[in-house]
Write a structure and sequence with these properties.
The complex is a heterodimer of chains A (about 110) and B (about 110). Chain A has strands at about 5, 10-15, 20-25, 30-35, 45-50, 55, 65, 75-80, 85-95, 100-105, 105-110. By secondary structure, chain A is mostly beta strands. Chain B is about 0% helix and about 60% strand. The termini of chain B are far apart. The chains are: A mainly beta (about 110), B mainly beta (about 110).
């Protein structure tokens, strides 16, 4: 079992560029989440999904978009990258509302 | 919304016991998680409390008081590998069980 897999692990973007952070899970979890973590801070929820075709905004959605066409995949799209989006991004999944989240290894993004 | 407070840093000695506190003020509550995060790595699950009381799991225990909006994580027989950040997260009542995370407590274990 691979669990939650994120790609890429590292990326440097120039201001105004766009990219997609990939996330896939092989645990058949319905719930998936995208968080960002700034240095010395906790995790802030960007977007989440309760199942294929259903997504919703979290705490800090501006500048991001998501889609959930399958149970396994939950990509995060950054349009017009800004320096404020420099952060570590974690994708996570869980099987029910009341169980713990399993996290991917993170994507460290720098916008210059 | 949710407001979660944890101490920023703590230091303890190998073999000792340390208690990491978490207080929260929330508009809804459906359980509290503790996660461990080593530097440069992903968070990993430690414990979940939804009812008042103490949950023990090996060297780690977690306590919850819903009336006081208070939880703590107790680490016994500290080891060097316990040096990490410990994140308190409150699950809200909505669908998808979204969690709000505190900023984490960085624990340094010294020999």
């Amino acid at each position: 079992n691979a669990g939650v897999t994120q790609t890429p692990k590292f990326r440097i973007l120039k201001i105004g560029q766009s990219m997609t952070l990939q996330c896939t899970q092989d645990m058949n979890h319905n719930y998936m989440y995208w968080y960002r973590q700034d240095p010395g801070m906790g995790l802030k929820l960007i977007y989440y999904s309760v199942g294929a075709g259903i997504t919703d905004k979290g705490e800090v959605p501006n500048g991001y978009n998501v889609s959930r066409s399958t149970t396994e995949d939950f990509p995060l799209r950054l349009e017009l990258a800004a320096p404020s989006q420099t952060s570590v991004y974690f994708c996570a999944s869980s099987s029910r509302q009341y169980t713990e989240a399993f996290f991917g290894q993170g994507t460290r993004l720098t916008v210059v | 919304g949710q407001n979660i407070d944890q101490p920023t840093e703590m230091t303890a000695t190998e073999g000792a016991i340390v208690q990491i506190n978490c207080t929260y003020q929330t508009s809804g509550f459906n359980g509290l998680f503790w996660y461990q995060q080593h530097a440069g790595e992903a968070p990993t699950f430690l414990s979940y409390n939804v009812l008042d009381g103490l949950e023990e799991k090996g060297r780690f225990s977690s306590f919850l008081s819903r009336s006081k909006g208070y939880s703590y994580l107790l680490l016994k027989e500290l080891q060097m590998k316990d040096s990490a950040s410990y994140l308190c997260a409150v699950r809200d009542e909505g669908r998808a069980g979204k969690s709000t995370f505190g900023d984490g407590t960085t624990l340094t274990v010294k020999p």
